[in-house]
Specification:
This protein has about 325 residues and is mainly α. It is about 75% helix and about 0% strand. The chain has 20 helices and no strands. Helix 5 packs antiparallel against helix 6, helix 11 packs parallel to helix 14 and helix 12 packs antiparallel against helix 14. The longest helix is centred in the last third of the chain and has 28 residues.
Length: about 325
């Protein structure tokens, strides 16, 4: 490993992170930034690392550094969107919306700003705001708004145009799982090489998440043994993430809770699930309320408290948004 090669340092940091070992990875992202301090990409890599692993204060320090260093740069539209992304990851979605609007103002032709604005509005449950920036409702925003049948219609058109869009197939499987079309979800994911594809290469977080989708569909379809194999694999990764520096992140706790549910370890599932209430990030609400591994707890008071806490956060963000936009002097 070349200690002066920023690209190599980041790549090795990502490799460690996906082993998974969050604590060990941090130093390589920091060293990459030290080697390439004028690069927005290095700040974005480090900010994303801190945000995804729920190291909120460190993430916000990077967001502030990006703002200070790149606010007068020709790349400021891109920089502002990186700041928006960091605020999204740490749960400040209202502030993320404000920064995405600043990005749009800096370069009205920058399409990523519009995409992020629509997605952030959708994530806080503001369909009107999402439609303002995405009138036709894109695939991902239909997921956030739990419009699964429409999502399937859009997704089928997308894969008809380009059958190699793996992420769309993964999204379609999520929609079918939520609708109770378990065999359809299983078939789609097996056609994309699951579970072997993830067993062999688990470096992509969306692959791990999708493997839990697959396990949940198998379990709901009565294929218990196969479901347990995949659930145990995912839980092994998530539990290692939690003990190596990502303990406050919502996503390893959410998916480990799902895994425990699939394995019939219901009390353990609820114990782990309750920890997501303390995570700075806003979890994926559709997974919490529509996946079978959690629907089995719909009458459980502990589960209901978690759902209520997420809905209250979404409402708080919607209520707080007008004042945030006014403070930033931005508007749609």
């Amino acid at each position: 490993l070349d200690p002066f090669n920023a690209d190599a340092l980041v790549d090795y940091g990502k490799w460690l992170w996906h082993q998974p070992n969050t604590d060990a990875a941090e130093g390589y992202f920091l060293r990459a930034l030290q080697q390439d301090p004028e690069s927005l990409l290095r700040y974005a890599d480090l900010g994303n690392f801190y945000g995804v692993s729920a190291q909120r204060d460190k993430a916000l320090e990077i967001a502030a550094a990006i703002q200070e260093r790149f606010s007068k740069s020709p790349k400021r539209a891109v920089a502002y969107l990186e700041v928006a992304r960091i605020h999204e990851l740490v749960g400040n979605l209202d502030v993320g919306i404000a920064w995405a609007m600043r990005s749009r103002a800096a370069d009205p032709d920058y399409p990523d700003a519009l995409w992020m604005l629509a997605e952030l509005y959708a994530r806080i449950g503001d369909e009107e705001g999402a439609r303002y920036f995405d009138p036709d409702m894109s695939f991902i925003n239909l997921f956030w708004l739990r419009r699964y049948e429409e999502m399937i219609d859009v997704g089928e058109d997308l894969v008809l145009e380009n059958p190699n869009q793996v992420q769309v197939w993964y999204g379609l499987a999520r929609a079918h799982l939520a609708l109770g079309n378990y065999e359809r979800a299983i078939d789609m994911l097996e056609r994309q090489g699951l579970p072997e594809r993830v067993f062999v290469d688990s470096r992509r977080a969306n692959g791990i998440e999708t493997l839990m989708t697959y396990a949940d569909a198998l379990n709901a379809n009565g294929q218990i043994d196969a479901a347990h194999v995949s659930a145990k694999f995912v839980n092994g990764i998530m539990s290692r993430l939690i003990v190596t520096g990502s303990q406050k992140a919502w996503w390893p706790n959410l998916y480990e809770a799902c895994g425990h549910s699939i394995l019939g370890q219901d009390e353990q599932a609820l114990d782990v699930l309750e920890t997501v209430k303390e995570s700075p990030g806003l979890l994926w609400y559709p997974v919490l309320v529509d996946y079978p591994c959690f629907q089995k707890f719909k009458d459980e008071s502990r589960y209901q408290a978690v759902v209520k806490s997420v809905e209250q956060r979404q409402q708080m963000l919607r209520d707080r948004l007008p004042a945030t936009l006014q403070r930033f002097s931005v508007a749609p």
